[in-house]
Amino acid sequence: MRERVLAEAEYILRTGDTVRGCAGRFGVGKTTVHKDMRERLPLLNPALARRAEAVLRRNLSERHIRGGAATQRKYRALMRRGQ
């Protein structure tokens, strides 16, 4: 478990990926990644936890932008098929 938590944190820092993306990469659930980053990592490596937390906060603040972009792509694709 320790190795997975540290690997997830390094992955998030290296890629800036979301919790969902990290969960898919490591084959675990989003809840597991959240628990790993918020509860387990601070006990293992507090400095790494602070850096990972900053990336997670940034991703959370940008969530509405990614959602809007996905909706825009969806409707553009539908419009192209309808023509």
Give a count of the beta strands, DSSP E runs of length 2 or more.
0
Major beta-sheet overview: none
How far the N terminus sits from the C terminus, by CA atoms, comes to 51 Å
Strand fraction band? under 5%
Average per-residue pLDDT, rounded, comes to 89
What structural class should be given to the helix and strand makeup? mainly alpha
Number of helices: 4
Shape: elongated
Low-confidence stretches: none
Order of helices and strands: HHHH
Q: Share of helix among residues?
A: over 70%
Quick structural gist:
By secondary structure, this protein is mostly helical. Helices cover 89% and strands 0% of the residues. It is elongated, with a radius of gyration of 16 Å.
Characterization of this structure:
The protein has 83 residues and is mainly α. The chain has one domain. Helices cover 89% and strands 0% of the residues. It contains four helices and no strands. Helix 2 crosses helix 3.
Question: What key phrases describe this protein's structure?
Answer:
about 80 residues; mainly alpha; 4 helices; about 0% strand; elongated
Describe the SSE topology:
Blueprint: H1 2-15, H2 19-26, H3 30-44, H4 46-82
